[in-house]
Amino acid sequence: MGGALFLLMNCLPTEAVGNSESVPRRFTSQAAADSAYSDWEHDAVGLEAVVVTGTRTPKTLKDVPIQTRLISPEDIRKSDATNVQDLLEQELPGVEFSKSYNQQTHLNFSGFGGQSVLFLVDGERMAGETMDDVDFARLNMNSVERIEIIKGAASALYGSNATGGVINLITKQPKQKWTLNLNGRGSKHNERRYGLNFGLNGTHVRNMLSFTGTNIDNYSFHNGPDQKAVVISNFYGDETWHVDDKLTWSPTSRLQITAKAGYFFRQQVRTVTVPERFRDFTGGLRGIYKFSDSDQLEVVYHFDQYDKSDYQKLSGLDVRDYSNVLNSVRALYNHTFGQGDILTVGADCQHDYLFNKNLQGEEREQDSFDAFAQYDWNISDQWELVSAIRYDYFSDGSESRVTPKLSARYKPLADMCFRFGYGMGFRAPSLKEKYYNFDMAGIWIIQGNAGLVPEVSHNFNASVEYSRWQYNFTLSGYYNQVKDRLATGSPFVDSSIDPEHPDQLYLSYINLKDYRTYGFDVSAGKHWSNGISARVSYAYVHEELPTDANGESINNQYVPARSHSLSVRTDWEHRFTKHYALTLGINGRALSGVDNLEFVDYRTKGDDGKLLRNEIHYDPYSVWKLSCMQQIGKAVRITLALDNLFNYKPDYYYLNAPLTDGIRLQVGASIDVDALFR
Amino acid sequence: MKYFFLYSMLGLSVWICSACNGLFDGIYDEGSPTGNHSSSEGDTVSFSMYLDATDWAAWYYVDIHALRDTILALQEDSVSFETDQWQFPSFPVPFDLTSAWDGYSYNRTYRFRVLTGGGLSDYEVLDSTQVDTQQEPSSWDLGIHRNNVRTNRGSVLATSYTSMSSLPATSEDLFGMMLAAGQDTAFTADTYNERDVWIDNKNMIAEKIPCQGIEVNEVLSTWLKINIPPIPPTFTHRANVFLLRMSDGTIAAVRLANYLSPTGVKCCLTIEIKYPY
User: Which residue has the higher pLDDT, A501 or A280?
Assistant: First the structure.
């Protein structure tokens, strides 16, 4: 329980400041911190961990009424993942990343694209997008402590974009008086990763500084003959730098103030003389004041600016062509009633500024406002009911929306938990989707559509979880009805727009016809006392391919969800001596094949007068990783891994093929400098 | 403590107002227009000229002899020189035949299997059209179409030098050094080319590119190569100094210093020339 308490106290998004006795103890007692870590280690299936994303209030994983998938610090450590893409692909079935046309990363999350899954960092939204996905390279794992994942609509708590789910990355906090970790990893194609985490933890002040640098070079793929659609011939790597600092001040037991600042830089070289640069500046201030044991107010200001520029090496000019700036202020108030019920009310204001040279007028901005309320009703030891409702208003187009959510937990036995829920999700059309005007390399002109209405999803879900004797079984199912999905439609020709180019193709953002996704997940995990642990997860996803209002299939350049996927992770940990421990692990994923209609060349028309497409078959594939982690003394950890162990390479790198060119050896080292002095 | 909270909120409000549309503008460049520059030393002039050669269907012509004369004559009036003299005549690429055919001017549309086959060397001719002769001014030395360059009965030699300032004092000195190093000093004349002068990009994604059949200098045209795939194409810049031997036997040193406009538009050329060299 100590571990749960410890983690509860460190949940920043809705961080609960403890009472006057417990908080100073938390900051001053090294023993308490060590105990918390120890408890975490012994909570083999992790159900005592505290999560916050599902209800915006801290709850243990086994009791939270909204099914939440937690990727723990231990999971992250064992995965040795560099960024969120590496991690989610290893940990979750039903998740696949692919590359968009200009080689930015796109997500398919159980039938929802990246634009319909809300990514949060410490509960805050991210600015910027490319091809409608956030820049996943920003989400590096060096600074992340854990990840909480909610599948299904959650707009009643989080507003727009939480149509298909919420993925909340919670960053590290210092656990000891001081900590310093240095780490690095190398692999082929000059893949390098450097990391530093420096933490200080005083009586009233604690600070965590994180730094990460990565690099991977460009490299080429070999494709087979007689390609049926456009293939990818080159992988464009990148170089990233990421620094974050989080300073927390607790002047009294009732008040906690956290300041954050971060800088991110990424450079991708598709043209040697004109590298593309991506920068992000983030900052914020969070104040939590606890009026009493049952009343708490949180006020947050968050700033996030994501820029893109082209660096002209020949002239030395760095010219910006995109900037998205989010300024948001939120107030969140919790009141806990005597019987354990919790009332949560809150409101956000956000200013969204977009500069894009391919935008009509180049600059657009809008303000949004929302208010929400949630009541968490602890009916009995068996039953808990959470209901929430939210109102959102967007100034551009004066759009407003009300979204409800209802979730229930039923525990007939101490080891068994049922969860049911209904949630509405929505995604308001972005400024880009309304006002874009971009000639995409002569292929077509992408047009915004000011008449778009919000995409709405209705999510029904149910799950059962059984945990006993270090076993954990979970079965969950979901059904999503999606109305007015926002996407680009079918390319069309309209000679009236530009009579000088009557054959010019256009691609407009539209609201699509209703469609459905549904599926289920099965997961089983076990931790044995001999050091072996294993988790097997299977996901089935049915994604109906969306069409436009006329039933025409759309420009779906991204791979639809693969129906079957399996994730396996097993490892064996053994301490041979006081100074040497070994962890051997193998994890992998296997995915079924999928077919996708893809344009042959974006111009050739078939007999029906429409652009010719070929059905591309993507073969089933599996990728496995064998890793060996050696702990030498208290401080040094050496990791050797063979990724893509069975040397899988697609015959054709069509747009949605996994961009792997075979087996790769990874060599990494990590040093906990503070441990050398303990 | 309540005042601290209040002041924090007030400070926050001020920050929010100032940060609404972003911060850190100073780390970026605005991309101001590129000027033209010239200098002279005795009879030799050195200049940097900016040419917007983005038009897919036009050739631009540079008269190096006339520019030298103008620079020497107007060097005391550089403002007038920079504003008035850098307009280079352009002539459209012919797409039709309006008079008697010259016997060699074609426009051909190729299908380059750049996305679905072997690349630019894997092609077929989809159609071929006889067109008028490419028009040109009465006097010129360099003809420029995007990344393509031709000469007026001249020839070109590539050097290993990558800046004008590092060149030996004269072309004779340079030839001497190249011969001593065993390097080839042969100049290459223009040759008829059917597939490198791309005159429209509208069907590029369909692998169909109309090309003008015309003489170009294949050595000098290496200063900027355009390759597909991928689409958009990649640009490979060769920053070396080239020696251009003109029809009167005089030599100019030429170098493509940049191919981007200040706002990043490709095929806006900054060309450095030293003449006579």
Answer: A280
The predicted-structure confidence for A591-630, as pLDDT tens digits, reads as follows 999 988 887 766 667 777 677 788 889 999 999 999 999 9
Q: Is residue B9 part of a domain?
A: no
Average pLDDT over residues A243-265: 96
* pLDDT 10s digits, A355-393: 998 999 999 999 999 999 999 999 999 999 999 999 999
Touching A: B residues 45-84, CB under 8 Å: none
**Higher-scoring residue by pLDDT: A279, B1:** A279
Q: Domain containing B215: what range?
A: 34-275
- Among A256, A310, A319, which would you mutate to test the B interface (most chain B Cβ atoms within 10 Å of its Cβ)? A319
Q: Identify which of B20, B116, B206 has the shortest CB distance to residue A603.
A: B206
Predicted TM-score (pTM) above 0.80 = yes
Assigned domain for B28 exists: no
Q: Is B163 on the interface with A (CB under 8 A)?
A: no
Q: How far is B169 from chain A (nearest CA, A)?
A: 25
In this structure, what is the dihedral angle of CA atoms A107, A109, A114, A115, given to the nearest 10 degrees? 160
Q: Structural domain tally of chain A? A: 1
Q: Is B247 on the interface with A (CB under 8 A)?
A: no
Nearest CA in chain A to B118: A225
How far is A289 from chain B, CA to nearest CA, in Å? 10
CA dihedral A108, A271, B212, B238 (to 10 degrees): -170
Nearest neighbour of A602 by CB, restricted to B19, B22, B206: B206
pLDDT tops 80 at residue A337? yes
Specify the CATH number for the domain of residue A658.
Answer: 2.40.170.20
Assess whether pLDDT exceeds 50 at residue A23: no
Q: Is the pLDDT at A587 greater than 90, yes or no?
A: yes
User: What is the distance in angstroms between the CA of the first residue and the CA of the last residue of chain A?
Assistant: 26
How far is it, in rounded angstroms, from Cα A491 to Cα A485? 17
Which structure tokens are listed for B69?
A: 């004369």
- Residue A547 DSSP SS3: strand
Check whether A33 has a pLDDT greater than 60.
no
* A321 interface with B at CB cutoff 8 Å: yes
Query: Taking 50 as the threshold, does the pLDDT of residue A34 lie above it?
Result: no
Distance from CA of A106 to the nearest CA of B (A): 19
Number of domains in chain B: 1
Average per-residue pLDDT for chain B: 87
Q: How many Cβ atoms are within 10 Å of A363's Cβ, its own excluded?
A: 14
Mean pLDDT for B70-80 is: 71
Measured between CA atoms, how close is A356 to chain B, in angstroms?
A: 13
Contacts of A307 in chain B (CB under 8 A): 22, 28
- Which residues touch A170 (CB under 8 Å, ≥6 apart)? A11, A12, A13, A52, A122, A144, A145, A146, A147, A148
Name every chain A residue with its beta carbon within 8 A of the beta carbon of B201.
442
Could B205 and A600 be called an inter-chain contact, meaning their C-beta atoms sit closer than 8 Å? no
Classify residue A11 by burial, with Cβ atoms within 10 Å: 0-12, 13-18, 19+. buried
pLDDT at A487 over 60: yes
> With DSSP H G I counted as helix, E B as strand and the rest as coil, what are the percentages for chain A, rounded to 5?
10, 55, 35
Instruction: Please indicate, yes or no, if residue B89 is contained in any of the structural domains.
Output: yes
CB contact, 8 Å: A647 with chain B? Answer: no
CA gyration radius, chain A:
25
pLDDT band at A16 (very low <50, low <70, confident <90, very high): very low
Ranges A289-303, A399-413, A542-556, A597-611: which has the least confidence: A597-611
pLDDT confidence of residue B113: 81
Question: With an 8 Å Cβ cutoff, is A303 touching chain B?
Answer: yes
For residue A257, the chain B residues in CB contact (below 8 A) are: 8
Q: How far is B179 from chain A (nearest CA, A)?
A: 31
Residues in contact with A119: Cβ distance below 8 Å, sequence separation at least 6, in sequence order: A84, A125, A126, A134, A139, A167, A169
Nearest residue, CB atoms, A319 vs list B16, B203, B264: B264
Domain membership of residue B179 (yes or no) is yes
Q: Which domain holds residue A160?
A: 2-677
